[in-house]
Amino acid sequence: MPIGHSPLKYLALRSATFLVDCIGPLSLIYSSFYLYNLFVHFNTPACHSPQHGLPLRPAATSTVSMYPASLYSSIATSLDSRNLVLLLYVYVLPIYMLLEAAFFIRFRYFLNKFDAPKHAPRMSLRQVSTAIDFVLSVAHVGVPLRIAACPNEQILHRASPPSQHSRLPALKLLFARIMNENDTPDQFRAMVAGWFFWKDDQMCQLQSSEIKYIGTDNLRDWLAWAFFSLPSIPDPDDTIEGVPSCALLNDMVSVIEQRMDVRLEQPSNPAIGTVKLNFNEIEAFSKPLLVYACVFVLESLAFMFFRYCGFVRFIKNETASPQPESAEPCVPYWLYAPQNPQQGLSPIVFIHGIGGGLFCYTQLIYKIMSSNFERPMFLVELPFVSMRLVDRAPTMLHAVSEIEEMLTAHGFKSANFVGHSLGTQYCSWIVKHSKMVDTVVLIDPICFKCFHPSLAFNFIYRVPGKNTEQKANEFLMHWLASRELYTSHYISRNFHWFDTVLFPDDLPKGESTHVILSGKDNLIDAKSVHKYLTSHDVNTTTFWDLDHAEFALRPSVQDSIAAIVNQTSQHGDLIWARRYRKLLPETKPLKDGLAANALAVDAAAAVAPTLSKKKSFDARWRRRKIRK
């Protein structure tokens, strides 16, 4: 969060959030006392004699009323400035506190409801992308899994070739690839150790030097969640497509021990816990109704701004009959369709991240849109992580299908995708499961190296001032996002790392991809991700002095991001033209490695001649058809 790291800011933020957190419990106490007095008052004989006709007015003789009768009489006779304050105190405050108390009870109800474990979906072969040859380079560590050739594909197996729709080969291929994604045994030990923590009051994350304290059963417990979507070590009789699960876990443990160059001696260590989602206890702070009301007002102002800029909001089936609870939720979105659109421009699809929704990105969205007002633009909403009291989220394949239908409904065959934070998860889904991607720009991505524990631990298990340092930015992320009920529910029950993880060779090649990192990102290890991406020749721009989402408060950085998006989208126009207008010649690629100080490079000169001659190309196409 973009507020800095100073201890003074941490203390001020801690004090302010403590007062806000007290609103819910205090409102419950106040409302209980108020309702008790109200009940006693209406059961007294004096309350039946009409005196001033004021609602909820205690009898003059009542000794248990919350306010003296003279106060009500004074308000009834005159309404000057002093009595207006008393009116708010006597009438408005009880109503507000009753609403806050009801909202607090609602929070407790949904917290218990969301706490039920939710099994992750099974893996599929589509989740293992990239060439098999690259995956099989893990053989140098002595993987006890053999290779067999099948009519259509190469798969890893133990006994017999699995069926075509098997998830066993996908599981083994993904596991083999992760074994190969860490350069040295020291780095691999640090990665494995980070998925465990000490079960004491501090809940500190294990360091690489403490790997020896992890037992084999602790490692099996983590592997059962990570690769089998199980809450704990499976029973000895449990099998996956005829192969005993315990045997597969034993194979994986052997591979990990060889990769770490460490032999785990003890079978189990009860003092160590495992970082695993889907089965963890959901932890959330009770945000008062006032906070959600403020977010609603800010979001309403943002919606007014979008309508002023020419956006139109679409909600699928908004006038249809109510959908059953089991039905997949739709994906609401906004569309900016220019009145005089320039032909050949593929649209931009922007997907926001966790927080307050689209209103946090109004300035960036306007800068991107103003770079070319003739380009259509979609804004995809994720209400379940926008403090909107929405708990239902679409599954991966349904979300991809909804976005494809969104583009098709408005006459587009492909688009340029831009995602921030959690929005990069959706971009990852679309890149891997859709053919409608021209280019992709990922800002503060969470989709790279998801098999590393930094994201899961920092968002779910990190408690600033307890198991990490006292930093204001980390505490704001912890209080506002990690411990918000609906956001915590989504991450703990609907975030699946194997669906989200994106490998460099999954991305569109060359200038079609650009990744923007924040060097001081408090969720991911930005330095490691930067090294990882640049080693695979992925265009990367890193703002080393920024925190996660800090660009929202830096207009100059927003200008740089808008320039990157504009230039990448112009490259997408060339891709669109070559894809749907085969007469266009190949063009030279743009400059490699866009940097923050070289964002003024404009590809419009290369694109404009191509786009301006679209009508002539269409005429040539028609003449060719006539000749044939």
Observed structural traits:
single chain, 628 residues, alpha/beta, Rossmann fold, 3 domains, eight-stranded mixed beta sheet, two-stranded antiparallel sheet, 21 helices, 14 strands, 9% strand, globular
Protein described:
It is a single chain. The chain has 628 residues and is α/β, with parallel strands linked by helices. The chain folds into three domains: 7-114, no CATH class; 125-274, no CATH class; 289-319 and 326-617, Rossmann fold (3-Layer(aba) Sandwich). The protein is built from 21 helices and 14 strands. It has helices at 7-21, 23-42, 69-77, 81-114, 132-135, 168-180, 185-193, 216-228, 245-260, 289-309, 362-370, 396-409, 423-433, 454-461, 472-482, 485-494, 497-500, 526-534, 555-580, 604-612, 614-627; strands at residues 146-149, 154-157, 196-198, 239-240, 243-244, 272-274, 311-314, 333-336, 348-351, 377-380, 415-420, 437-443, 513-518, 540-543. The strands form four sheets. The chain has an eight-stranded mixed β-sheet, with helices on both faces. Strands 1-2 form a two-stranded antiparallel ribbon. A hairpin with a 4-residue loop joins strand 1 (146-149) and strand 2 (154-157). Helix 2 (23-42) crosses helix 4 (81-114), helix 3 (69-77) crosses helix 4 and helix 19 (555-580) runs parallel beside helix 20. The relative contact order is 0.10. Residues 48-65, 123-166 and 582-628 have low confidence and may be disordered.
